[in-house]
């Protein structure tokens, strides 16, 4: 493994860890600060998640700032990241996500691991995950292929903060984050039995998003 690939993997691990720590930690804080108001809990959770995404992407984009296996796979499909490198980055994202969930639990005085009991299912939520992930892929790669690629942090942070509200699933849109959220039985948790359908729908959304990116932003020689 080259030094450059190692740096990318470390950036993905650290970035995904902080992202999940923000998602889970703000969810726990929201439960405690607004115990009788689920709408306010979601607002607090969404604002923290959107804000931390902006900060993390700005800080780590010069190295690697996908923090999402679907985004990394799409990068490979589009020819931006070699498959072997992508496999390492996805592994780093998965490990980082689980680490972030454990740290968030510990910060709030909970057991490091508490398996989530919040079952999330039904056709509406699964459609929501397709929409959320499709939109995320379109926003990420549409912005990167625009005349303002430096704006991707703000585009992604804004999209996710909004998608918490306009998708029925509250926009998980990330297999690493979805898996990590099984480790916290709190506001943002998801029961292990709900993970596979969510991840499958995220992959479907990612594939549809990649197709849209290719259709809307063809290579220069194909225009």
UniProtKB/TrEMBL annotation:
What the entry lists under InterPro entries is as follows:
Aquaporin-like, Aquaporin_transptr, MIP
- The scientific name of the source species is Nocardioides ginsengisoli
Superkingdom assignment: Bacteria
Where is the protein found, in the record's own terms? Membrane
Q: Sorted alphabetically, which PANTHER family does this protein's record hold?
A: AQUAPORIN TRANSPORTER, MIP17260P
Task: One Pfam family, please name it.
Answer: MIP
Which residues are listed as membrane-spanning?
9-30, 50-74, 86-110, 122-144, 151-167, 195-216
UniProt KW keywords: Membrane, Transmembrane, Transmembrane helix, Transport
Q: Is-annotated flag, keyword Membrane? A: yes
Q: Which residues form a coiled coil?
A: none
Q: Which family does it belong to?
A: Belongs to the MIP/aquaporin (TC 1.A.8) family.
What is its membrane topology?
Multi-pass membrane protein
Write the protein's name: Aquaporin
């Amino acid at each position: 493994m080259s030094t450059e690939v190692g740096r990318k993997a470390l950036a993905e691990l650290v970035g995904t860890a902080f992202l999940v720590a923000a998602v889970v930690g703000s969810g726990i804080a929201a439960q405690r600060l607004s115990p009788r108001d689920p709408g306010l809990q979601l607002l607090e959770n969404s604002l923290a998640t959107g804000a931390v995404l902006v900060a993390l992407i700005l800080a780590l984009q010069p190295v690697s700032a996908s923090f999402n296996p679907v985004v990394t796979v799409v990068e490979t499909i589009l020819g931006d990241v070699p498959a072997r490198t992508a496999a390492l980055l996805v592994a780093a994202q998965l490990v980082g996500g689980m680490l972030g969930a454990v740290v968030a639990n510990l910060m709030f005085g909970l057991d490091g691991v508490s398996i989530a009991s919040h079952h999330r299912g039904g056709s509406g939520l699964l459609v929501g995950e397709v929409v959320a992930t499709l939109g995320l892929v379109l926003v990420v790669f549409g912005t990167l292929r625009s005349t303002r690629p430096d704006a991707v942090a703000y585009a992604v942070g804004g999209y996710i903060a909004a998608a918490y509200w306009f998708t029925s699933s509250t926009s998980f849109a990330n297999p690493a984050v979805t898996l990590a959220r099984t480790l916290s039985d709190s506001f943002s948790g998801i029961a292990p039995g709900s993970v596979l359908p969510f991840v499958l729908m995220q992959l479907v959304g990612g594939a549809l998003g990649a197709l849209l990116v290719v259709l809307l932003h063809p290579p220069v020689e194909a225009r």
